[in-house]
Specification:
The chain has helices at about 5-15, 45-50, 55-65, 90-100, 130-150, 165-175, 200-215, 215-230, 235-260, 270, 275-285, 325-335, 350-365, 400-415, 425-445, 455-460, 470-485, 500-510, 515-525, 525-545, 555-580, and strands spanning about 25-30, 40, 70-75, 80-85, 115-120, 150-155, 290, 295-300, 310-315, 340-345, 375, 380, 455. Helix 1 (about 5-15) packs across helix 3 and helix 4 (about 90-100) crosses helix 18. With about 575 residues, the chain is an alpha/beta fold. The structure holds arginine. The site of arginine has 8 residues, from loops. Belongs to the class-I aminoacyl-tRNA synthetase family.
Length: about 575
């Protein structure tokens, strides 16, 4: 139950006492915070039903609430809005109740679920693009939020390690170095430990191989053939493939670690591959799969469809397994290995059709319920020209360069502000990374997931306004305020007793956390939590400006304010961590 739920029950009882339905008592945050803290608009629909004047009903309900100890003021305004203000004692007790040093009032999912969240999708040997960056940022935050709400969540990186790019690389290498033992059919291993190529080679080879395959049909054929042989298990190719995957994964792990993104599972498309023959047989036997021009396809169109819904190609006419089949098989694999209640995919909006087809196919096959599969798609991060973000040279973004760019800019900003003075190099660099990543992540998360947004590093990096650096700074500030108070002998935190406007405003934000978290969870929209973080930081800042702390003469007030500050700081740090942001000790 959130605070609004509790208040809705109280107001609902007043409606019941008037002979009306208790659900009319639903309470929400006030539209006019200058007039009230909460409001209930139930008198308006009630009046329509009872053919009465809404103001009269509102007055009657308000009169019944007049004595309720929870409220200091109940009034009626406009056409029949019931405005509510909490009594200071009630608010203080509510704040005390969330002061547990861990959840700070955070909402809990009543029926926890086992969830797999698929939010990486980087491709072996291919550079990560902006879509992968957003997936990592949004997915990491959702994973943390769901986990905090009580769900049992497994994050899977779901590597793109099984596509045509692997065949392109193998055939490229075969042309460059035909004498490598890996290509000798007579040699089935063991292969030399000495690696034929390193990560730089891989990064150099991939664009060349991919361009060659696009430009030259003969090369495309070679690549397809190599892909097929790899998928069929040719030992030298498998050994090379394993080597490519290992090189890429080592580099990816470093990038994700710098982003504070952590996966529980490092499985990939290749892991689903062994299931394909078995599934193909099963689907054929049950007439889910049909043959069409030598390919195995599954129809997923429905009569109610308003748009075209093409069938999925499970296995193509050359026997190769594509992206759709891999995702179908991955769902079956996850069901067998983990048996989750739900699978979430944090993947680019451009793949909406793909997921719709896959979800329908598994529903048709009876492998998994479609309504327990969610594609949490997101919009594009654009450059200032409104087109998908590119490097200055016009190339695809490499995550590593991106991380370096935001870290360097953060370092500059910190130096300008004199923050870095007197810190050793290691600490300065780590703070710069945290600030840079916070700028990037917060900018990404604070836009509704489904919208596009424009990448503007100067704006994201500002130390004032709704930015990641501002929030880290706010967190550091609360800590330093409390530290200074302690050093100045201000005493210990004590029972909360709100009494000033700025204290009530801060208290209200703190108590709103449960509702915010529930809404964030239900909509799978981290920007709602971002708004909360910003409101909290602002309310703290106003409170700190308006209310004395160390030099407050009244010991009880002082103790109460120390508590308020520590609860606000604790909740802020918690929210930042749910967003995937890490506040430094000092900055
Ligand atoms: N590797 C894919 C890409 O780069 C993304 C994978 C997303 N996850 C999935 N289960 N399909 O587009």
């Amino acid at each position: 139950m959130t605070l609004k739920d509790d208040l809705s029950v109280i107001v609902g009882e007043a409606f019941t006492a008037e002979g009306l339905d208790h659900t009319l008592g639903a309470v929400k945050s006030a539209d006019r915070p200058d007039l009230a803290q909460f409001q209930c608009n139930g008198a308006l629909p009630a009046a329509k039903l009872a053919k009465k004047n809404p103001r009269e009903i509102a007055q009657a309900v308000a009169a019944r609430l007049g004595d309720a100890s929870q409220f200091s003021e109940v009034s009626v305004s406009g056409p029949g809005f019931i405005n509510l203000k909490l009594a200071d004692e009630f608010m203080s007790a509510q704040i005390e109740a969330v002061n547990d040093g861990s959840r700070f009032g955070g909402w809990l999912h009543e029926t926890p679920e086992k969830i797999v969240i698929d939010y990486g999708g980087p491709n072996v040997a291919k550079p990560l693009h902006v879509g992968h960056l957003r997936a990592a940022i949004i997915g990491e935050s959702l994973k943390r939020i769901l986990r905090f709400a009580g769900d049992d969540v497994t994050g899977d990186v779901h590597l793109g390690d099984w596509g045509l790019q692997m065949g392109q690389l193998i055939s490229e290498l075969q042309i460059r170095q035909p004498d490598l033992v890996y290509f000798d059919p007579a040699q089935s291993g063991p292969y030399p430990v000495e690696s034929p190529i390193n990560l730089q080679d891989l990064e150099e080879m991939y664009p060349v191989a991919s361009a060659a395959s696009k430009a030259d049909p003969a090369r495309a054929d070679l690549a397809r053939k190599a892909t097929k042989e790899l998928q069929d298990g040719r030992p030298g190719y498998r050994a090379l493939w394993k080597h490519f995957v290992d090189l890429s994964v080592a580099a990816m792990k470093k990038d994700y670690a710098d982003l504070d993104v952590e996966f529980d599972l490092w499985k990939g498309e290749a892991d689903a591959d062994p299931l394909i023959p078995e599934l193909t047989e099963d689907l054929k036997a049950r007439n889910v799969i049909e043959e069409s021009d030598g390919a195995q396809i599954i129809h997923v169109a429905r009569e109610s469809d308003k748009k075209e819904m093409p069938p999925i190609i499970f296995v193509n006419s050359q026997g190769a397994v594509g992206y759709h089949a891999t995702d179908v098989a991955t769902i079956v694999d996850r069901k067998r290995e983990l048996d989750p209640d739900r699978i979430l995919y944090v993947v680019d909006a451009r793949q909406r059709l793909h997921f719709e087809q896959v979800f329908r196919a598994v529903e048709r096959a009876g492998y998994y319920a479609e309504d327990h599969l969610e594609h949490l798609w997101f919009g594009t991060m654009n450059g200032k020209d409104g087109k998908p973000f590119k490097t200055r040279e016009g190339g695809t973004l490499k995550l590593r360069h991106f991380i370096d760019m935001v870290t360097d800019r953060a370092l500059e900003r910190l130096k300008e502000n004199g923050f870095a003075d007197g810190y050793d190099v290691a600490e300065t660099n780590e703070v710069a990374r945290q600030v840079g990543i916070a700028a990037l992540k917060f900018a990404d998360l604070s836009n509704p997931r489904t919208s596009d947004y424009i990448f503007d590093l100067d704006r994201f990096m500002a130390f004032e306004g709704k930015t990641g650096p501002y929030l880290l700074y706010a967190s550091v500030r609360v800590r330093s305020v409390l530290g200074k108070a302690k050093a100045a002998g201000a005493g210990d935190p004590g029972p909360v007793q709100v009494g000033e406007a700025a204290e009530r405003d801060l208290g209200l934000v703190i108590l709103n956390f449960a509702d915010v978290l529930r809404e964030t969870y239900e909509k799978r929209m981290p920007h709602i939590l971002c708004d909360h973080a910003f409101s909290l930081a602002q309310a703290f800042s106003k409170f700190y400006a308006a209310c004395r702390m160390v030099d407050e003469a009244d010991a009880e007030k002082r103790a109460s304010r120390l508590s308020l500050a520590s609860i606000a700081g604790g909740q802020l740090d918690l929210v930042l961590s749910l967003l995937g942001l890490d506040a430094p000790e000092r900055m």
